[in-house]
Amino acid sequence: MPSVSISGGVGGRAPAAALLDDSERAFERGLVTRFSAEYEQRRRQEAAAATEADAAVADEAGEAPLVVELAEMYARDNARSHHTDQYELVQFGTPVLRRGLPFFVALRFTRPFDDAADVLRLQFNFGPQPSVTKGTCVILPVTQQQSLNDDKRLWDVKVHHQDGTTLTLQVQISTVAPVGVWRCVVQSSRADRRDVRRSYEHDTDVYVLFNPWCKEDQVHLEKEELRREYVLADTGKVWLGSARRPRGRRWVFGQFDDAVLPAVALLLERAALPHALRGDPVAVARAISAVVNSNDDRGLLWGRWRGPYAEGTAPHAWTGSVAILEQYLRSGGRPVRYGQCWVFAAATVTVCRALGLPCRSITNYVSAHDTNRSLTLDKYFTRDGEQMACGPGGCRPDVCWNFHVWNEVWMQRPDLPPGYGGWQVIDATPQEKSDERYRCGPASVEAVKRGEVGYQYDAPFVFSEVNADLCHFIEDNTSEWGFSRLSINQYHVGQRIVTKSAEKDDDEGDTDLEDITSQYKDPEGSHEERLAVLNAARFLPMARCHYELPSTENHDVAFDLVEIENVQLGHAFSVTVHIHNKAEEQRTITAILSACSVLYTGATAHRLKRANGEFIIQGGQREILRIQIMPQEYLDKLVDHNLVKIYAIASVKETRQTWSEEDDFPFINPKLSIQIRGSCQVGQTSQATFTFQNPLNRLLTDCTFTIEGPGLNRPKVIPFRDVKPGELVSFTETFRPRKVGDRKLVATFCSQQLPEVSGAATVSVQP
User: Fold this and answer.
1) Two domains, one topology: 551-666 and 673-766
2) Which of 489, 286, 473, 321 is nearest to 392 (CA)?
3) Catalytic residues
4) Between 15 and 36, whose confidence is greater?
5) CA distances in angstroms from 78 to 311, 377, 515, listed in the order given
6) What is the pTM of this model?
7) The domain at 551-666 falls in which architecture?
8) Does the domain formed by 224-543 have CATH 1.10.287.1080?
9) What pLDDT does 535 receive?
10) Were both Cys, which of 90, 126, 350, 352 would link to 321 (CB 3.0–4.6 Å)?
C-alpha cells in the first residue's frame, strides 16, 4: 500500500476544518446535537428499564407503585386566573403561570390513588443542576391536607378532587420562585417500599413568571390600569425627535408571540445569571440590561450607530420586537443586526413584560454621557469653532446624545433603604462597563433625583445623563493647559424626560406623551436641583475637583441663539443669533455660526454650512447674525433621524467675555396614513391601504414597506417600486386577523433617500 504524507505549516494544506463550508458546519452541528440527544435517550431508557424491573418485582409481591398514564396541566384554564391567557404558547398546551398563585394539574393512574398506601410527590426542577437548598428543586409530597399554606413564599400542594383513577391537585407557586422554564416530574412509591419508585416526567415546559397582581411579589403594581399598560400592553410608543418636538414611534412589543418566551429563556441562559438568583427581580433586570446587547455575552442585538446596514436590518426599519426575537431564536442565538438605543429599549420592554416584570421605555432629550465621572459634559473647540473629536491629550471625550432611550422597571428594593423602591432605571445600550460587562442598573429613580448616587447600581452614570452641566472649552495659547472655558450651561442636559402615558393611546398624534422630568430632577436652577448636584458631587472625586461656576462680572453683551422649532424635510432653514450690547461703549464681536448633520448620539456626520466674522456694535445697539441653509445644501448629508446640530460661538475683544450655545432639531418627515377597508373578522381576509406623499424633489429608491400587527399580521417586509419626486404613494396589503378586539397595525416605509415614514392604526376585529 503506498504511503500517504500529510504536511502542515507554511506552504502546507490548511486543516480540514478550515475547508468546511457553511452547509458542512451546519451538518456537523446537527450530528453533534443528534448524537448527544440519542446518547441521553439511551441512558434514560436504561434507567427506565431498571425502574421497571424493580417495579415488576414489587408487582409480584403486590406492592407496585402507581403508574402515571397521563398528566394534564390545564394550560388554558390556569392561564385565565394567572393573567396569561394572551400568551400564544398557552394555545399550544404550554403552561404559563405566575408566582404566588395556585394552579391545577390532573394525574391519571392505572389504579386509584390510596393515600394510606401510596407515596406521591411532585418535583419541579429549574435549570441544569436542580438543588433543593438553592430553591431550584422543589419536592411536594401529596397529602390529604385541606388547604394551601398561607405563607405564599412557600410552594405547596393539596388534593382538590379524586375521581376513580384521576387525581386533581392544586399547586401553589412560591412568590420568590425563579422565573423561567421549569419541568415537572411525578414520583410514586409505596409507603412500605420507598426504595422502589416510578418517575413520570411531564413532556411540556412550564413557564413561571413574575406576578405584578400579587402583593407578596416584589414586582407588585397596585393599580390595574398600570398593569394593563406596563405588563399586558403588547404595543406602545418609543419617543424620538427633540425636546421641543417629541415624536412617538409606534412599536409592537409582541410579548405574547409564541417565539418570545423561548427566546427570552435562551437570553437568560446567555446572561449567565445563576439559576438560584432568577427569582430576584433586581438580579434579573440587571441581567436583561446586559444580554439585550451582544457586546460580551452573545446577546440579542448588535449595535450600529450609522449606516450602511447592508449586513442586517436598519434600526429604523424594524416595526417591533417579534421579528428580532424570532430571528434570534431561529439562528440558534446569533445576535441580530442592527439596533440603536431606542431599539435596545423597545426590545427590553418585550423581554421584561414577557417575564411579568413591569417595564416602560424612557426618553431623555439631550442626554449626557459623562466619561470621567465629573458631573460635567465637556466639549472642546478649535480656534475656528470646529468641535474636536478628542479632548486634551487625545483623551476620550464626553458625548451628548440628542436623545437617549432607556427603560424603567417597577419593583421594591429590599437591598436599599425605605423609599427607594418603585421605578428603577436599566439601560441595555452598551455605553460603559459595569462590573466588567456592558450593562446599567437597576438604579433607583428616587435616588437619582436626590443625588444619592452611592446606591446600587450605576446611579452616578444615570445622574449625569440627566443633570450634568455642559461646559464648552476653546483652544487658547495663553492658557497653561491650552484651553479656556467659553461657557457653562446648567440647563442644557436633561431638557425633557418623557414616556408613554398609561391613560392615553394616540395613533394620529402625540397627545399620549407623559412628561416625567420632575420624577428625575427638580426644576433646573432651583435650590433643590443644585443641592442634588452638590450631594452627588460628594461621592465623585472628579466632580469635587471640577465643579465651579465661571465669573460673569464682565458680561455686558447678551447673546441669544434662536431655537429652531419645526422644519419640514425639503425646506430651507436659518440659524439666527440676536446680540444686544448693554454697555455704553462700543464692543468688538468675533462670532462663528455653524450647522452640521449629526447622529442621534451627538457625533458629527457632515458639515452643512459655516460662517464667521468680526464686527463692531455701538453702545446700546442690537444686531442679528443669520445664515440660511437650503435643501440642496443638506439633503445629501443627512443621516438617521435627520438631525441637525447648531453651534454658535462668540467673544468680546474689549472685556474678554466669551459665549457659546448649541441647539439641535430634527426635520419633520411625512406621516404614513393607514386606512382599513370594511369590517374585520377573525379568519377573514381584510385590506389596509398605506398612503404618504414624497416630500422630496428626487426619486426614492430601494423602497420597502414593513407591516406588523399582534393578532393581525406577523412581521412582513414587502419590496416596493421606486417613488417619483413629489408622488402621492398608495399601497394596499391584505391581512387575516387571528384575535378579536382592538388591535394595532404598525407600518414603516423605508428608502435610501427617505429612511423612515411610519404610521399606525387601531383595527377593531369582530369574532
Assistant:
1) yes
2) 473
3) 341, 404, 427
4) 36
5) 43, 53, 38
6) 0.87
7) Sandwich (2.60)
8) no
9) 65
10) 350
